[in-house]
Amino acid sequence: MRPGNIEGRADAAGIRLRIDDLGSGITVFRLHSRWTRLLGFESTFYLLGDLLIDTGFPHAGSLVLEALESRKIRAILCTHQHEDHTGNAGAIARRHHCPVYLRHPELRWSEGTAELAFYRRLYWGRLQEYSPLNMPESFDWEGGKLEIIPTPGHSISHVSMLDQVSGAVFTGDLYVAGSASAVMVQENLCELAESLVRVADAAPRRLLSGHGLDLANPGPHLRMKAEAISRAAEKARNLMAEGLSLQAAAWRVFPRGHLKDLVFRLGTEGEFSRRNFVASALRCAPEISSRTSLG
User: Do β-strands 16-23 and 4-10 pair in parallel, antiparallel, or remain unpaired?
Assistant: First the structure.
């Protein structure tokens, strides 16, 4: 089959699902809701042969189950334990009688997932209990081998997955935008910058994110973001050493878009903000810049 659109469908709640063939055995499932359209991005998950990478968000559960009904799924591999990525893992696993894999499954209800903030329940829906197995180092599939790359930072459970045949790397939320920016309250900038470099070192030829990004030759982009995080984190630490508050330092590190940041900070009950970036920079060791050196 030539790459291109396969089908699309929608439900009464305004959630839409579009399915595209990307070639090389990769099918992408693109989910939109009224909320994601307002925010300007989509939630995506993938089928690589008979391996399902992520599962979409709970509010889209009926559409997702219907779309996967006739497909063979041997295993579900989760990039990380957030509801827009693992939201339908349990339901799909029961329907297809297949295992679910997650890095650090024993920690899956940490980092705010045990009791989701209101905005996360509104946007995505509540996570349901499921029983993941510990993520192995690799998976064989009918077209090749999938290498699992630990990429913590956004979440302690986060992994990226490199298909050694096509060169495509599935990065979940590791790389959503190209610059240093607001982060969630639990994020670790040191680990995030190191994870970006780790994936770049694996020399992927294509990046497929959990929110619709399809990027060719991603290595330089990953390294540039790691460097941007390092510079911004160092500036944040220097400003805090001068006696600035978290908010004042955040304004200096990110001199534009203050109103947008305020809207996100209030709308997420403080869970996502530039102030969180400064707080995480303080938790990081000063060696972050040397560990993510582009040289």
Answer: antiparallel
Q: Give φ, ψ of 259 to 5 degrees.
A: -65, -45
Measured from the Cβ of residue 111, the count of other Cβ atoms closer than 10 Å reads 18
How many Å apart are CA 167 and CA 113, to the nearest integer?
Answer: 32
Structural domains in the chain?
Answer: 1-136 (3.60.15.10)
CA Rg, the chain, in Å? 19
Query: How far is Cα of residue 264 from the mean position of the Cα atoms in its chain?
Result: 18
Whether 249 and 237 have beta carbons less than 8 Å apart is answered as no
User: For 260, phi and psi rounded to 5 degrees?
Assistant: -60, -40
Report the C-alpha gap between 290 and 215 in whole angstroms: 27
Distance (Å) of CA 270 to CA 65, 94, 117, 161, 263: 33, 35, 10, 30, 10
Cβ pair 60, 15 in contact under 8 A: yes
Nearest in space to 280 (alpha carbons), one of 193, 209, 211: 193
Neighbours of 72 (CB within 10 A): 12
Task: Give the DSSP per-residue string, 217-277.
Answer: S-HHHHHHHHHHHHHHHHHHHHHHHTT--HHHHHHHHS-S-HHHHHHHHHHTTTSEEHHHH
pLDDT tens, residue by residue, 215-273: 999 999 999 999 999 999 999 999 999 999 999 999 999 999 999 999 999 999 999 99
Please name the residues in contact with 266: beta carbons below 8 A apart, sequence gap of 6 or more.
none
pLDDT in tens, 77-97: 999 999 999 999 999 999 999
Which element (helix H / strand E) includes 148?
strand 144-150
Identify the three-state secondary structure at position 19: strand
Please identify which residue in the block is written with the tokens 């042969």: 49
